[in-house]
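In this supplementary section we document a worked example of the pipeline. Step one takes a protein sequence of length 275 as its only input; no multiple sequence alignment statistics are reported here. Step two produces a three-dimensional model, which step three serialises into structure tokens for compact storage. The input and output of this example are shown verbatim.
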Amino acid sequence: MDALAAYLCTMEESQPSGKRINKYLSEIGFCSRRAADKLIELGQVTINGVVPEMGTRLEPGDVVAVKGKEVGQLEGAKLIYIALHKPVGIVCTTDQVREKDNIIDFIDYPSRIFPIGRLDKMSEGLIFLTNDGDIVNKILRARHQHEKEYHVMVNRPFEDEFLAKMASGVKILDSVTLPCAVERTSPTTFRIVLTQGLNRQIRRMCEALGHRVIRLQRSRIMNVELDMPMGEWRYISEAELQEIHARIALAGEGQEPDWAESSEPNRENQSDQPS
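The serialised model returned by step three reads:
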């Protein structure tokens, strides 16, 4: 073994064991690492009842609590990846106290899961739920690269010029939307594929061009298709999950998600709601 290899081996062996508390809170989906750091600074996180220092690492058996309430999941718990056909009227929030029509009560899964991104209350279609906070961070950071497909009905027939403007970019929210694929499916319906996630993007685009959305369904996220009846869910297959990871790796993580500053990433009023 040469000197450099020996040095690297020694350095690896000398690294402290355990996972940093901020990474742990991120991976279980409680909040981003940045938000976890703020909670730690405010003394709102405890490990075994003691407020930790920044950078403290967890050991097996440690109990983590935020604001006095235990959080997280058991070591080795199975990672869950679900595709749900969300109905109209269900809100993509984990707030089961203030929102009676929340997605968590609706799906009623026996262990803790949370939605990846959002689909607004008056829209239906595909949404992912998981207990894997790491993949949430990666998907939301790559949200400007991966495709989401929607089928949209508006209140009156539209001309080809409407489709051309939708495809080339529409000025909303003090910006112009990115070019996208748009295809007519009837006099009042079209299919659109987005690669960005501005707040209520499709509805705002249509309104800017003089039309009102009366039905909106998300039919695909990346490589996963909507293939179950409304209100039902299925597990994302291993093949689909492998493809998701491959696409994330190709896209790169990019910028921080919109909720990086928040300790509650799944609030309904945050962005990444392109519907």
